[in-house]
Amino acid sequence: MLRSQQPLQTTPRVDHLLIAEMVTENARVLDVGCGDGALLDLLIQTKGVDGRGIEIERDRVNACVARGLSVIQGDADVDLDDYPDDAFDYAILSLTIQATHRPKAVLENLLRIGRYAIVSFPNFGHWKVRWQLLFHGRMPQTENLPEPWYESPNAHLCTIRDFADLCEKVDAEVVRSAAFNSSGRQLSPHAPLVMQNIFGEKAVFLLRRRSAY
Questions:
Q1: Does pLDDT of 2 surpass 60?
Q2: d(CA 24, CA 173)
Q3: Overall pTM surpassing 0.85 (yes/no)
Q4: Looking at the DSSP assignment, which residues form a beta bridge with residue 206?
Q5: What is d(CA 180, CA 120) in angstroms, rounded to the nearest whole number?
Q6: 3-state secondary structure of 191
């Protein structure tokens, strides 16, 4: 297994910490849209995973490889089709699904490639977003959605409720989910979906194929 030689010194993202809780030790992991490799590095250092990454931006791929991470350049919308079934224990997509052009197809591929899929995303149903739309009539800008609409990489923003509906459409079982705010405070797992949809700024879902069990 190729291990990172230079751990990132930044504070881990909240969703990365929640994802790390969901991953078992020594698992085979594919991090799709791995960015600077922060999540891969965290999983290697804390869970001893056999981690691989795919990232669309060449400079980020080069930076990951220079740090000893096994990352290749690729596009989640296109290149996941080439991965074999059950190639990994976990296929992960962190804060990326809203930037894909085919989120349903991407999620189906994650569930096919991994025994489990883990997806985190910003919640477009959060009350701050609703407030800005209602009182300003413009696409909102928040801490989680900082760019103006004409510069945003997000092609398919969704709410927690939307994503839960998509899970049903692709026959995915929700093993665990967590809604949380930017400081990392989680809503109660027993909170109804409508409350998570209003008060959760981001969410993480641990999924698996129903048909496989």
A1: no
A2: 18
A3: yes
A4: 118, 176
A5: 11
A6: coil
